[in-house]
Amino acid sequence: MLSKNQIKLIRSLKQKKYRLQHQLFVVEGKKAILEFLNSKLQLNQLFTTTLEFDVSDVLQTTITPKELNTISFFKTPNVALAVFKISKPKPIDFNNLIVVLDDVRDPGNLGTIIRLCDWFGVKDLVCNTDTVDIYNPKVIQATMGSITRVNVSYLDLESFLSAQKGIQKFGAFMNGETIYNLKLPNSGILVLGNEANGICKQVEFQITDRISIPRFGDIQEAESLNVANAAAILLSEFKRRTL
């Protein structure tokens, strides 16, 4: 049975300020929860309408579907909701490709980019502080568990990039050199910008290589690519060239 305090706490975790205050976030759905349980992230509490999880009785509470509906962030709740502890980011590995996001606001885009990083073997994702929170429930849902395998850090991008001397910093622009003509390294930094405005001027000054994805249509009127679609193409090309 859920207590009033538990309901209040879980509902509060929909907002970033309370996630930061309590250092907790919510994961919903059996498949997603199993991904997190198999990771190094620490479970705080699991609430389930079934008994299908191999979790100690201390950390697991059986609730009714009605109670789950009370705390769920989904319109149609799954069989379980778990609360996990936020862990500190690990040191960044500069021996591999690092993806950097400048002010990406859409939770679905961030979640998809995290999945892409996981798929293409990118271990580190660096975001500026205005990028949507990775523990936003919509981001968690969109990552499909990949967030457990990608190290995400929130930093001041201008300072972070300026400190990386001797490392190629690729920035995605509409007027950059086509990605298909470039010799790409095994390591480096790939910067992707805001969905509407691209990479900001302060970050742009730190870029060493401007790259682009060319348009091939007969009528080239498409304004731009979705940032997650662009990430998929660029990461695929980086990986293909370095195999």
How would you portray this structure in words?
With 243 residues, this protein is an alpha/beta fold. Helices cover 32% and strands 21% of the residues. The chain has helices at 4-12, 16-22, 30-37, 65-71, 107-119, 137-143, 157-162, 201-204, 227-242; strands at 24-28, 43-48, 60-62, 80-85, 97-101, 124-127, 151-154, 169-178, 188-192, 209-212. The strands form two sheets. A six-stranded parallel β-sheet has the order 7-6-5-9-8-10, with helices on one face. Strands 1-4-2-3 form a four-stranded mixed β-sheet. Helix 6 links the parallel strand 6 (124-127) and strand 7 (151-154). It is elongated. The N and C termini lie far apart (53 Å).
Structural class: alpha/beta
Helix content: 25-40%
**Cα radius of gyration in angstroms:** 20 Å
Strand order of the largest sheet: 7-6-5-9-8-10
Summarize model confidence as the mean pLDDT.
Answer: 94
SSE inventory with pairings:
Elements lengths: L3 H9 L3 H7 L1 E5 L1 H8 L5 E6 L11 E3 L2 H7 L8 E6 L11 E5 L5 H13 L4 E4 L9 H7 L7 E4 L2 H6 L6 E10 L9 E5 L8 H4 L4 E4 L14 H16 L1
Parallel strand pairs: 2-3, 5-6, 5-9, 6-7, 8-9, 8-10
Antiparallel strand pairs: 1-4, 2-4
Helix pairs in contact: 5-6, 5-9
